[in-house]
Design goal:
Layout (H helix, E strand, L loop, with lengths): L1 H40 L1 H12 E7 L5 E2 L5 E13 L11 H8 L3 H8 L6 E7 L1 H10 L6 E10 L7 H4 L1 E2 L5 E3 H5 L1 H4 L3 E8 L5 E4 L11 E4 L3 H17 L4 E7 L6 E7 L18 H4 L9 H11 L7 E3 L4 E4 L2 E4 L6 E3 H7 L2 H11 L1 H10 L26 H8 L8 H12 L3 E2 L5 E5 L5 E4 L6 E2 L3 H14 L17 E10 L5 E14 L6 E8 L7 H20 L23
Parallel strand pairs: 2-10
Antiparallel strand pairs: 1-8, 2-3, 3-4, 3-5, 6-7, 8-9, 10-18, 11-12, 11-23, 13-16, 14-15, 17-20, 18-19, 21-22, 22-23
Length: about 575
């Protein structure tokens, strides 16, 4: 009996050994077949996979082009810099030096430890570091290959806030994000090339193919902006805004003969080198992107419409109702009571009632056609991004009060660039020029790639009408006009004040918030500059003739001096400017 049990046990063991042997044999066969399959049929795929593990393609972009003012002063440049990266896999023996690394770079040690524990082959610690910071990291003595000093580039704006909203800024990877940096990103951006990089097991660079090869540099921009004039305008604008506690301000200086923008300022300013520290609303170029109700500056174009239509002469008189005039259910006021006023006097004294009476005479269609001809309600075509069309509704939808309100600059919205361009058309004898701020695109060798020059102007009013409107604008800065504080001794200033109530979120006009403005050109005989100054919600005073006119005077005088424009009158040459004090009504 014992012998039979032993035989059965032996037999069972042999069967189990046989089964295990068969299973392992089958596994060997499967593995062998898989090896043969991979070696015979998948060699290309495996070679490619292995290559991707240690061989990478890195894209290198050429240096971003610069931005210059009209006198080749650098407004935006790109400099070579260094960024600090890390290979976490090589940091095992350097963890005790994390605090030193954090202190050298001014970052939190906890953030570096998180990066080490991330499991990634490469992480950034800090981009675009200062030379002193890079030297401090080198002195720590970290493991070789643990820290990477990666050559990079940084966009720098050497003049800080100067023309910041015009120029805009680019991000850390040199992508244009705002202003001309954004609008001309494709021209400024350098050409990209690919390089093959061999990496070790923890991601460190071992070999770089054609390491000295970089992309071609991008093209550069030459602007119409004059840095000196821009500085003058920004200085005056800031002082004026601060003096009157204005929420914001804008100013534009244009050559009316060509449409070249010599200065374009937006207050509050910001520094594009540290743009993230500022409120986003101050980034944009509001002289182009934002619309506002222009107020009485619109009376210039009303007068031009009336004269061009032949329904009025400068001496045509209108009864101004002694300061109050009802249009259906609406009551129109003047700041001063007036009786009979001529067309010229309506502009000189800035009578709203007179403006309504003129609009009633010429009709809504003629008024709309004239304003549209001056460029309102449409883009000027300036080579900046984000331009607003403003608002000029179709005349078919105008009610009588709409027509009257638009005549004195409410119920219509314009941009600063639209307004100064239309003003320049009067200064230019009735020819509307296309404004522009980029003069040329040039390559890295200074060769012109594209030229932006003076375009063929479009005549919108006759030379005679322009001359008559110019004569009327001269009276605005005379002793009896609303713009006496814009007068400059030695020069004949032609201008117009503007004071508009602000439209509020409740669908009506605020009683205590205004937009104060003054626009004008000088000298009268041969206008060299057209200037617009706009202050949003000034306190203490809100009339354009009090707030904006003196700013215009300072800007115009300093710019004329800088440009070497002599006074018109021989006896005033070499003398300083003076103002003519007086009460301002519009």
């Amino acid at each position: 009996m014992r012998y039979g049990r032993k035989t059965d046990e032996t037999k069972g063991i042999r069967i189990r050994i046989l089964v295990v042997g068969l299973v392992f044999s089958a596994l060997y066969l499967v593995v062998g077949a898989r090896v043969i399959y991979l070696q015979a049929f998948c060699d290309d795929m495996l070679a490619g996979k292995a290559s991707r593990e240690y061989q990478k393609v890195r894209v290198t972009t050429g240096k971003r082009g610069a931005i210059y003012d009209r006198n080749n002063m650098e407004m935006a440049v790109t400099i070579d810099t260094v960024s600090i990266g890390m290979h976490p896999g090589a940091m095992t023996s350097a963890k005790d030096k994390v605090n030193d690394l954090a202190a050298a770079l001014g970052v939190k040690a906890g953030e570096i430890r998180k990066q080490i524990a991330s499991g990634k082959s490469f992480v950034w610690i800090k981009r675009n570091v200062m030379p002193a910071e890079a030297d401090a990291v080198r002195r720590i003595g970290l493991d070789r290959g643990a820290i990477a000093f990666v050559p990079e580039r940084q966009r720098v704006y050497p003049n800080k806030t100067l023309a910041a909203q015009v120029i805009g800024f680019s991000g850390i990877d040199e992508n244009g994000l705002e202003g001309l940096e954004y609008a001309y990103d494709s021209s400024l951006r350098g050409l990209s090339v690919e390089r093959t990089i061999i990496k070790d097991a923890i991601g460190r660079d071992l070999y770089t193919e054609s390491a000295d090869v970089g992309g071609s540099s991008g093209n550069s921009l030459v602007l119409t902006i004059d840095g000196t004039i821009q500085c003058i305008v920004e200085t005056v604008l800031e002082e004026t805004a601060r003096n009157y506690d204005a929420a914001s301000g804008m100013a534009v200086v244009m050559d009316p003969r060509t449409g070249e923008v010599l200065a374009m300022a937006n207050y509050p300013f910001f520094n594009p080198n540290t743009f993230s520290r500022y409120d986003r609303r101050w980034w944009r170029n509001r002289t182009v992107t934002d619309a506002f109700e222009p107020g009485s500056t619109m009376k210039i174009f009303l007068a031009a419409a009336a004269l061009e239509a032949g329904v009025c002469t400068p001496d045509s008189v209108f009864f101004c109702e002694e300061g109050k005039y009802r249009v259906y259910k609406n009551l129109v006021h003047d700041t001063k009571a007036h009786g009979w006023l001529s067309l010229g006097q309506i502009v000189q004294y800035s009578s709203n009632i007179g403006a309504v009476k003129i609009s009633e005479m010429i009709g809504r269609q003629v008024l709309w056609e004239s304003l549209h001809g001056f460029g309102f309600g449409q883009e000027t075509g300036i080579n900046c991004s984000g331009e607003t069309q403003g608002r000029l509704a179709d005349y078919a939808r105008w009610t009588p009060i709409d027509t009257g309100a638009i005549a004195f600059g409410q119920g219509i919205s314009v941009s600063a660039i639209q307004l100064v361009t239309a003003l320049s058309a009067v200064a230019n004898g009735g020819v509307l020029m296309k404004p522009y701020v980029v003069k040329a695109i040039v390559d890295e060798n200074g060769n012109v790639v594209r030229q932006y020059g003076v375009t063929q102007g479009r005549r919108i009013i006759s030379r005679e009408t322009a001359r008559t409107v110019t004569d009327i604008m001269e009276t605005v800065t005379s002793e009896d006009g609303t713009g006496t504080m814009a007068a400059i001794k030695g020069y004949t200033v032609c201008g117009k004040t503007g004071t508009a109530q602000k439209y509020n979120a409740q669908g009506g006009y605020a009683e205590d918030e205004f937009v104060a403005s003054f626009m004008g050109f000088v000298p009268k005989a041969n206008p060299r500059i057209a200037v617009l100054v706009v202050l949003d919600a000034p306190q203490k005073h809100h009339y354009g003739g009090v707030v904006a006119a003196p700013a215009f005077r300072r800007i115009a005088y300093e710019v004329l001096s800088y440009l070497g424009v002599s006074p018109e009158f021989e006896e005033d040459r070499g003398k300083m400017m003076v103002s003519i004090p007086g009460e301002v009504n519009g």
